[in-house]
C-alpha cells in the first residue's frame, strides 16, 4: 500500500476533532475551538481568537455541522472509490466469524437426528420380533417419543440452515453497506480525542465558504492526505 504515513505535528487536547484542519474562509489560517458557550459550539478563526477582530473576523462555523459533514464525506468517498472487493474481503472475515459456530451447530443437530433415527429403527425392529416378547404399548410409546424428538430437532436444524443461507446469500451491496454502517457505528464509539487522531490521519484540509453569517457558512472542499482508491491495494495483496 502506498499510503504515506502521516504524523500530525501536534495534537492539542480538547473536544474539537477538526481543529486546525478547518481553514478560515477569510485568512486561510487554521480554525480552532471557539470561545466556549455551553449552548452553541463553534470553530473559530485562530487569528481572531488570539489577536482580535483587527486581524481577522471570527468566521464561526457550527461544530456539529462540520463534523457530521466531514464524516459523511469520508463515507461517501469510501463507497465511491474503494472497490467492493477490498471491502468484501474485510466483510467476509466478519461474516465467516459468525458462520462457523452456526455451521458446527447444524452438523451437531444432524448427528443427533441420525442417532435418534437409528434408535427408533432398532425399537421398531425389536417390537416386530415375537421372540423378544416385548410390551407392545411400551414399545409404541418409546417409538412415538423418538419420532417427536426427531421432529423437534429437524425444525431446529431447518432454522439454523435458513440463517446460514441468509448469511451466504447477502448480496454485495448489502455487505458493503453493512461494512460502511459498521464504520459509522465504530466512529460513534470514539472519544473526541480519537476522532481527532482519525481525522488528522486521513484529512489534510477542510475549506469553508465565506458566507454572510454563521448559518450560511458551508464546507466546500475536503482534501485528503491520500486518494482513497489506494485502499484497493488491500484487496490485491490477497
Ligand atoms: Zn481568519
Automatic annotation (TrEMBL):
Domain Recombinase zinc beta ribbon stretches: 17-73
Pfam family, one: Zn_ribbon_recom
Keywords recorded for this protein, A-Z: Coiled coil, DNA recombination, DNA-binding
Database matches in InterPro entries: SSR_resolvase, Zn_ribbon_recom_dom
Coiled coil, from the record: 99-126
Organism domain of life: Bacteria
PANTHER family to which the protein is assigned, alphabetical: DNA-INVERTASE FROM LAMBDOID PROPHAGE, SERINE RECOMBINASE PINE-RELATED
Protein name: Zinc ribbon domain-containing protein
Organism name: Ornithinibacillus salinisoli
Amino acid at each position: 500500500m502506498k499510503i504515506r504515513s502521516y504524523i500530525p505535528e501536534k495534537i492539542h487536547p480538547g473536544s474539537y476533532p477538526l481543529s486546525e484542519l478547518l481553514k478560515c474562509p477569510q485568512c486561510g489560517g487554521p480554525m480552532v475551538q471557539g470561545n466556549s458557550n455551553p449552548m452553541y459550539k463553534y470553530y473559530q478563526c485562530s487569528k481572531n481568537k488570539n489577536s482580535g477582530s483587527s486581524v481577522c473576523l471570527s468566521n464561526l462555523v457550527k461544530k456539529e455541522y462540520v463534523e457530521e459533514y466531514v464524516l459523511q464525506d469520508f463515507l461517501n468517498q469510501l463507497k465511491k472509490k474503494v472497490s467492493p472487493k477490498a471491502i468484501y474481503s474485510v466483510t467476509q472475515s466478519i461474516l465467516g466469524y459468525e458462520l462457523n459456530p452456526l455451521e458446527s451447530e447444524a452438523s451437531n443437530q444432524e448427528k443427533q437426528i441420525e442417532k435418534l433415527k437409528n434408535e427408533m429403527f432398532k425399537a421398531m425392529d425389536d417390537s416386530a420380533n415375537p421372540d423378544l416378547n416385548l410390551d407392545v404399548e411400551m414399545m409404541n410409546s418409546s417409538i412415538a417419543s423418538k419420532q417427536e424428538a426427531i421432529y423437534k430437532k429437524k425444525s431446529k436444524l431447518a432454522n439454523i440452515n435458513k440463517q446460514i443461507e441468509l448469511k451466504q446469500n447477502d448480496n454485495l451491496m448489502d455487505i458493503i453497506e453493512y461494512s460502511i454502517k459498521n464504520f459509522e457505528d465504530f466512529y460513534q464509539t470514539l472519544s473526541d480525542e480519537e476522532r481527532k487522531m482519525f481525522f488528522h490521519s486521513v484529512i489534510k484540509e477542510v475549506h469553508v465558504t465565506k458566507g454572510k453569517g454563521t448559518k450560511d457558512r458551508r464546507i466546500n472542499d475536503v482534501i485528503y492526505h491520500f486518494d482513497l482508491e489506494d485502499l484497493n491495494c488491500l484487496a490485491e495483496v490477497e
